[in-house]
Amino acid sequence: MFLLTIVFYIACIVTAGSAFCLLFVKKPMHGALYLTSSMLALSIIFYCLGAPFLFAMQLILYIGAVIVLFVFFIMLSPLDKTSTFNLNEMNTVIPVGIIVILTLSIITLFTTGPSMPSTEFSSIQIIDSKSVGSLLFTHYKLAIELISTLLLAAMVAVIYFAKNIEKNEAE
């Protein structure tokens, strides 16, 4: 339990520190690394609090999908070609160090496991992914449809602005 508490506080510090560093980063790839380390530390916090489902969803959805999409967008976007990758820069060393610390924290969590409080949880209902999905598409159906419409509108706007930028560069 003592080790899990230490890992929890380290993950809290890393989450806040990475989010703070994300505000002042100059290069987009470094920003993606800070965002990745912040999301990874947040998933460790979920696991320490006894929510393995949220831990897995955080890893799969945010780190596995959203961050990878950000990295692909950054790699495919036309940035200036004069910037070089220098391992001596602190902007590169800090995110890599944070990710190494978080990876070691995950290994520690899986070897020790989350510790649950000694109180009785007879009134707590265990919710699985099937019940979460059915609740989202029955009770919160309107909210899901509004969010999907908002995301579709944002995607159409990005495509429209990207086409206008291409037309202006061609002229």
From TrEMBL:
It holds the Pfam family Oxidored_q3. It comes from the Bacteria. This is NADH-quinone oxidoreductase subunit J. One of its GO terms (molecular function) is quinone binding. It catalyses: a quinone + NADH + 5 H(+)(in) = a quinol + NAD(+) + 4 H(+)(out). Composed of 13 different subunits. Subunits NuoA, H, J, K, L, M, N constitute the membrane sector of the complex. It comes from Paraphotobacterium marinum. GO terms for cellular component: plasma membrane. Gene3D superfamilies: NADH-ubiquinone/plastoquinone oxidoreductase chain 6, subunit NuoJ (1.20.120.1200).
